[in-house]
Amino acid sequence: MKVNFHLDKKNKPQSESGMRVAYGRAKRGGYRLRWYLILVIVISPLLFMIYYLLKDEVLVTAPGIVTSYPLTITVAQAAIVRFIPVNVGDEVEKGQSLILLIDNALNKDVEFLQKELVALSNNNIQSTDELYQKAIASTKKSLAKVQQIQQKYDQFRKEGLVSEVDYAVVVNVSNAIDSQLRDQEIAYTNAKRDRAQLILAGPVAKQYRALMNNLTIKLAKQENLTFKAPFNGRVLDIHVHEGQRVTDNAPLLTVAQNVTPDITAFLKPKYLDYSLKGTKAKIIFPDGKKLSATVSRPVEVVNKLPPELQSPLKGQPAYLKVTLSFDQPIEKRRWIEGVEVEVRFGSRKLALSQNVPS
Asked: Which of 133, 149, 175, 314 has a Cα-to-Cα distance from 66 of 20 to 30 A?
């Protein structure tokens, strides 16, 4: 048996003991919103967990960096930074001076060697040519006089005015002087030869060549203290400042060519099919900008992740090093060396179909 109660309050909810009572409107919207917020907070960790668990199965992504293959210039010897005529971001031409170093000890060595070479050059080997030439000239004059006397004696001999003994004395004197002249000429020739050998292979010459060789080496080192741009490009970073003392193999500055950068992505080996040349991908910059790119080189190297992409306290397996090129020119403000990007590849089926020859 069902019993129904008909109370006056139910029939007249806005009346109390014959008086009218005005109630406010029900406020259920606020409670409903709070309930939804609590529900979202409760299930959001579960949704994020499901997303990260299924991300590798649904999406094929890889971390990557933008690179223009920069070159870091290092110093080969200890020196002091004297002058840096460029700034970060400047465009430079091939052969343009980038940085000038100075080595005071090297400069002192060069100055000393130059002074020594000047001193050796002024200290010439004393020549005896003049003495030999005077002696030869004197002997020639004596020989000419004796030959004149001999000619007269020849005439007197024919006329019978000179004895054979006197004539023989004149002939002997002439022969002796002629022999003396030949000996002097031979001695002069030998002296010139000895002097030439002394100039070429003597101790002074050897010392001169040794100093010149040492000076050449020092000047080459001095010239190497001026670093020039190896190509047309731009300055990415300067690692030193003027007045700083640098040691061997210290980095000075980093330059890159003025070309559209590439993307170096690190793909898990299980996605080998996506590393084939010609595979399309989307490059997502940190600000959300998306650009298309294509794998431009065959994969030949398996590398560890670079330090900027590694996670702390986590083992780093090997990855496929994939190089991609942008499909269209990009604005220069995105030519930022080493910026991290996300590389998102297409589906496996699409990647395979793009690489199967028709």
From this structure: 314
At 319, is the secondary structure helix, strand, or coil? Answer: strand
- Of 12-16, 17-21, 336-340, highest mean pLDDT: 336-340
DSSP per-residue string spanning 301-318: -EEPPPGGGPPTTS----
Residue whose entry in the numeric block shows the structure tokens 């910026």: 339
If one counts every other C-beta atom within 10 angstroms of the C-beta of residue 273, the result is 14
Token readout for 166 is 């006197």
Q: What's CA 182's distance to the chain center, in Å?
A: 68
Q: What is the pLDDT of residues 222-232, one digit of tens each?
A: 888 889 999 99
Any residues with CB less than 8 A from the CB of 284 and at least 6 apart, and which? 290, 341, 342, 343, 344
Contact criterion met (CB below 8 Å) for 255 and 235: yes
Token pair of 111 as six digits: 């100055």
Provide the token pair at 7: 């109370």
Q: Which amino acid is at 358?
A: S
H/E stretch holding 181 reads: helix 164-201
